[in-house]
Specification:
Blueprint: H1 2-21, H2 25-37, H3 40-63, H4 65-69, H5 78-94, H6 103-111, H7 116-144, H8 155-178, H9 180-191, H10 193-196, H11 198-211, H12 221-248, H13 255-268, H14 280-293, H15 306-335, H16 341-346, H17 350-365
Helix pairs in contact: 2-15, 3-5, 3-12, 5-6, 5-15, 6-7, 7-8, 7-11, 7-12, 7-13, 8-9, 9-11, 11-17, 12-13, 13-14, 14-15
């Protein structure tokens, strides 16, 4: 049932975003004229720089995970770490509703390095830190645009909502690592789940307590600082990629505008995602870039200025290169000695197994304790 709901939400998001950015006949003609204006030789140097930045992004995003695993006594060699991460990133892109987030913890559990729940805790820390970094930048960039000609009515509500969400998540992390049992018990009580489904609530509480083991990195100052530095370089390379590729098309996008565009897109794709982020990625990219180039992506394409169509081509090439890159890296990961299709098939029921283990723990004596 949960999978069906996730798939329904993802397909609905796909339909909505595809409808929002799908070009009309007149728009396709405009896009054809834009594409014909550029020669490969003119954009090739920018593409080379963009690909170089993708390499930096992939390395930073993969290698930083070791700094979250180290406080749990786990250190993965570089080869397996890159392979597992690359396959996991491809799964996040390919699977709907963020189901791909379970792949890396599942692969780690299969290696016998760590329980999947604890590994999922490190992924939760990763996502919250990423979200907070991006939200802080988006908030700053959009706050600076207040009162400017590019201001749009969705800006500040989005900035406050994103910042508030990830600030609350960070607060949960801090309390969960200091007082795990009372914090999770309070959150469960606030969810009202114990009142309506007490057995399910006990299982979830047990697994959350196990997952909090992954939060131990918050107590390890050195590894946490190194992780944040890796993350800062990762997001800096992402923003620079937007800047470089935008200038390949002659778009007059400032460096701050490039980072704001990246941030708006990053926040947007954290919503229940369409398969492959198709349509969703382009729409939020256009929404962000429009703040700095003088158009509103929410309006009908027939009333858009000429710069919109150049930005549309940019957003789609940006999407294609991102998707192609993660598919290529994921395929290389699957071709490596460390990950295989059999491994992916073996972990497909990981969430069910986690629930089963939680139920078994409940019968054996209640919720798990943090060591």
């Amino acid at each position: 049932m949960k999978l069906a709901i996730n798939l329904t939400l993802s397909l609905a998001m796909l339909a909505l975003c595809a409808w929002l950015v799908w070009p009309s006949h007149e728009t396709r003609e405009q896009l054809r004229l834009v594409i014909e204006h550029y020669r490969f030789a003119d954009v090739a140097p920018y593409l080379a720089g963009y690909i170089g930045l993708l390499v930096v992004v992939q390395l930073c995003r993969s290698l930083r995970w070791n700094n979250l695993l180290a406080p749990l006594g786990v250190r993965i060699p570089t080869g397996p770490l890159l392979a597992i991460s690359s396959v996991g990133f491809m799964a996040i892109l390919a699977l709907p509703a963020r189901l791909g987030e379970f792949v890396r913890p599942g692969l780690l559990r299969k290696r016998g390095d760590l329980s999947a729940s604890a590994a999922l805790g490190t992924v939760a820390v990763e996502r919250i830190v990423d979200g907070l970094l991006v939200s802080l930048f988006v908030f700053g960039a959009l706050f600076a645009l207040r009162g400017s000609p590019g201001e749009q009515d969705w800006m500040m509500p989005t900035a406050y909502a994103a910042l508030g969400l990830f600030a609350a998540a960070l607060l949960f992390l801090v309390f969960a690592i200091r007082r795990p049992e009372p914090t999770i018990a309070f959150c469960m009580k606030m969810s009202l789940l114990p009142r309506f489904a007490p057995r399910i609530a006990r299982v979830i509480e047990s697994k959350l307590l196990d997952m909090v083991r992954g939060f131990v990195v918050l107590k390890d100052r050195r590894n946490m600082i190194v992780f944040v530095l890796w993350s800062a370089v990762y997001w800096a390379a992402n923003g620079m990629g937007v800047y470089v590729l935008a200038h390949a098309f002659g778009l007059d996008l400032s460096l701050v505008g490039a980072f704001a565009t990246m941030g708006v897109c990053a926040v947007g794709i954290m919503l229940p995602n369409a398969p492959g982020l198709m349509g969703q990625f382009q729409y939020f990219t256009l929404l962000g870039i429009g703040l700095y180039l003088g158009f509103d992506a929410r309006l009908d394409q027939s009333v858009q200025p000429p710069v919109y169509f150049t930005a549309y081509v940019f957003a789609n090439l940006h999407y294609i290169m991102q998707v192609g890159w993660y598919i290529l890296c994921g395929a290389l990961g699957l071709a490596s000695p460390w990950v295989s299709f059999h491994d992916l098939w073996a972990i497909r029921g990981e969430r069910k197994k986690l629930a089963h283990d939680g139920a078994a723990g409940e019968h054996a004596g209640g919720a798990a304790k943090i060591g």
